[in-house]
Amino acid sequence: MKGWPQSLVARVVLILVVALACSQTLAFWLTRMERDKATTDIMMGYIEREVVSSVALLDNLPPEKRAEWLPRLARRSYDFILGPGITGAPPDKQLSSMIARYIADGIGKSYPLTANAVPGSRERLQVHLQLSDGSPLTIDIRPMHGAPLSDWLPVLLGVQLLVLALCFWFAVRIAARPLHQLAEAADALGPDLQPVRMPEDGPSEVARAARAFNAMQDRIAGYIAERVQILAAISHDLQTPITRMRLRVDMMDDEAQQPKLQQDLQEMENLVKEGVAYARSMHATSEEPRLIDPDALIDTLVFDYLDEGRDVKLRGKAGAALMTRPQALRRILGNLVDNALKYGGNAEIEVDRLQAGVLEIRVMDRGPGIPEDMLEAVFEPFRRLEESRNRQTGGTGLGLAIARQLAQAMDATLTLHPRDGGGLEARLLLKAPR
Questions:
Q1: CATH assignment of 8-141, given 1.10.730, 3.30.450, 1.10.150, 3.90.380?
Q2: Right CATH number for 189-283 from 3.60.15.10, 2.120.10.30, 3.30.70.860, 1.10.287.130?
Q3: Is the pLDDT of residue 392 over 50?
């Protein structure tokens, strides 16, 4: 929904505050209506009693004394006029009609009277009658609609709403905190499977969810560790028969088949080693992060390739120490360089320090490249773009998968991009060098 807050805390607080505001508005309106009705009833009874007494008093006074008493008999909502007053149409307002009816009920039997509204912006009516001696008397009435509100009442209601909104926010934030902790624990459960234990306290529902999540982390870590152990055992057990087969192949007299069998055995051994390496990369590495000089590590890697006669070039410097896992970083860069050499014949490494303390390492080649719709698919294990079944050219399909798993375990980002002018660029972003 457009404009709807994204945070659960904000949504719940917004709903509660709006509901409270609507409830307060309705309660205020009902209270005001009841107060106005009670005030009107009191005013009607008051007017009826006072007007009856005042008219009777004026009727009993000598005509020359009546004018002296008019200020004494006047009230805030009405006063008396010794005269015919202002004529007009009958009262059309509800309150005016009610006042005229109450006055008629009180004195209408003794003094025939008429009532009419007085034109103007403010509600006003006059009641006309004649005293016993025939003198005209007019009651000029200005109806009051309920009792006036105190100036501080809206401020008090606003402060009350603000205090309750803050209480709602605090309560909902406390209630939603376990969800935030759960999300952080789930995000922290990376390929290294080093779980962040959730505190198993608080309300019963929260404690139960925390226990279930911690148990799930333990089960996942156990399953992965068991798989790695199985693969390691298989690799160890396969080494012996592969070695025996190599010895037998070396003793063969068939010179035409011997190289082919040796190549097949080498591919089997590479596949077993890469499979175990990929499984261990998913379980991450037991290597602890430490502060290293990335420039020295990359220089050493490049020199090793140069010593082998490979075409590898290096440009740029990190210029700062880096907290990372050096063996994992070397394995990632080695896999990327091997991939560039395999398909492009050469490799170029560029190191650059970006803003926000991010170290960017790019490994580039001028090979055939990868179609854009396959740039993510090649990170899947055993995914090879090489159509041939010859693993000497196509590889095992695990190099990039291992590099991606190790990068995730290091909290780094590894992506592939087409290179301008042809070729492929592998981009590794390492956070917070220091």
A1: 3.30.450
A2: 1.10.287.130
A3: no
* Same fold across 189-283 and 285-430: no
Q: Please, what is the average pLDDT of the chain?
A: 81
Percent of the residues in the chain that have a pLDDT greater than 90, as a whole number: 15
- Whole-model pTM: value is 0.49
Per-residue 3-state assignment (H helix, E strand, C coil) for the chain: CCCCCCCHHHHHHHHHHHHHHHHHHHHHHHHHHHHHHHHHHHHHHHHHHHHHHHHHHHHHCCHHHHHHHHHHHCCCCEEEECCCCCCCCCCCCHHHHHHHHHHHHHHCCCCCEEEEECCCCCCCEEEEEECCCCCEEEEEECCCCCCCCCCHHHHHHHHHHHHHHHHHHHHHHHHHHHHHHHHHHHHHCCCCCCCCCCCCCCCHHHHHHHHHHHHHHHHHHHHHHHHHHHHHHHHHHHHHHHHHHHHHHHCCCCCCCHHHHHHHHHHHHHHHHHHHHHHHHHCCCCCCCEEECHHHHHHHHHHHHHHCCCCEEEECCCCCCEEECHHHHHHHHHHHHHHHHHHHCCEEEEEEECHHHCEEEEEEECCCCCCHHHCCHHHCCCCCCCCCCCHHHHCCCCHHHHHHHHHHHCCCEEEEEECCCCCEEEEEEECCCC
pLDDT tens across 274-328, in order?
666 666 555 555 678 888 999 999 999 999 999 999 999 999 998 888 888 888 8
Domains of the chain, by residue range, sit at 8-141, 189-283, 285-430
Q: What is the pLDDT of residues 100-153, one digit of tens each?
A: 888 888 887 788 888 898 888 888 888 899 888 889 999 898 887 666 666 777
